[in-house]
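Worked example

This section walks through a single chain of length 194. The input is the sequence exactly as stored; nothing has been trimmed or padded.
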Amino acid sequence: MKNGSIRNIEKTLLSDNWYTLNKFKFDYHREDGTWETQEREAYDRGNGATILLYNKEKATVVLTRQFRMTTYVNGNDGGMMIETCAGLLDGDNPEDCIRKEVEEETGYKVDAVRKVFECYMSPGSVTEILYFFVGTYEDHMKIGAGGGAEDETENIEVLEYPMAVAIEMMLSGEIKDAKTIMLLQYAQIHGLVS
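Given that input, the structure is written out below as tokens.
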């Protein structure tokens, strides 16, 4: 991928402790024809996928709750976040990844998932693109307790809410996670859950 407005890119590794944090120094060609030197940091944690599980007959959705250190240090009520099921691709294609994550995190085994869009969640500093899915679930699809992978220290609580309650939680600020808000709004706009 080339961009004629960028040249002289210098990349410096700042950290690879958890994922990778790089500093980029580069020249940027401005609209007025001049070149200016800029510096940016980019955090690379890989790409991911997320899904809203919904049951049209029961008018419910499955969400998760887990501790997020970043929200804790930013003052979020104990750091606990209510979210849609999600995970990093780790070399899988997005559909295979999200099916695996659903089973690990929620205990449901789903086959049919549908990609609805993809987006960058924080393009000012994070390289991750997130693939958004929706999928139906039924009670008989529950094959395990969920809770996350043992080796990933996730400690995930599985939640099932009426869609109307989840929307109220979003509006009241109890649900603050962007990917979850986006998928709840998608479901609401497209009438996935009555």
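What to look for: The two ends are 44 Å apart (CA to CA).
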